[in-house]
Amino acid sequence: MLNAVLTFSATCSKNEDKIIADIFKNYNRYVLPFPPNNRSVLVEFGMSLVLIVNVVGEKLPKADKATNATKPLSSSDFSLYLTTAI
User: Fold this and answer.
1) Cβ 37 vs Cβ 81: under 8 Å
2) CA dist 52 → 5, 35, 67, 68 (Å)
């Protein structure tokens, strides 16, 4: 029984290797998965200023008593370019 399991496992491994090799046959790791850079890319992110408040000395907006949440801070910068380090 153990021999059958090991043989089956080895056979699956070869098949998996063939599938992976076939899938990534024409893969180019330097091609980026988004539109050309003449089109805009919308990037959204958030941050928390809780630890910076004590250093700067400014207070965050008052929290809403019902939800205990502060007003989110937002900014738009359309000159950002999305780059990746490979």
Assistant:
1) yes
2) 58, 36, 23, 20
pLDDT (tens digit per residue) in 4-62: 544 555 566 888 888 888 888 888 878 776 666 677 767 787 766 555 545 544 555 56
pTM for this structure?
0.26
Using CA atoms, how far apart are residues 49 and 29, in angstroms rounded to an integer?
36
In the 3-class helix/strand/coil scheme, how is 33-77 assigned residue by residue?
CCCCCCCCCCCCCCCCCHHHHHHHCCCCCCCCCCCCCCCCCCCCC
Positive/negative CA dihedral, 6, 12, 17, 20: negative
